[in-house]
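[stage:ingest] chain + small molecule (FE2/S2 (inorganic) cluster)
[stage:ingest] validated
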Amino acid sequence: MGERQAGDPALYFSTHVFVCGNRRPEGHERGCCASKGSEKIRDYMKVRVKELGIKGVRVNQAGCLDRCELGPCAVLYPEGVWYRLEDFAAVDKVLEQHIQKQSRVAELMLPA
Ligand code: FES
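[stage:predict] done
[stage:export] tokens:
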């Protein structure tokens, strides 16, 4: 995995969240995050980041992150930690514990 090097510009975002928004046709063998509600999850996360006044965090929609069966999934950088964001409560936990407290939400984390 790439590592930051001396002379790299400072991080533009302290945390950059990518939420998969990929949608596949119904019946596709891998399924998709959008069919499991990822678009609403992303929108909710964006709203909550603003409401909570969290600075330096960017929430973006991503295409397929290739972990479709485990979704709805999101990955946070620069940590490279993946979560299954199954509902709004999961989003709240990640925002509070991972981002605000710089901890982890072990029960939502995807395996390596
Ligand atoms: S559809 Fe979300 S990771 Fe592939």
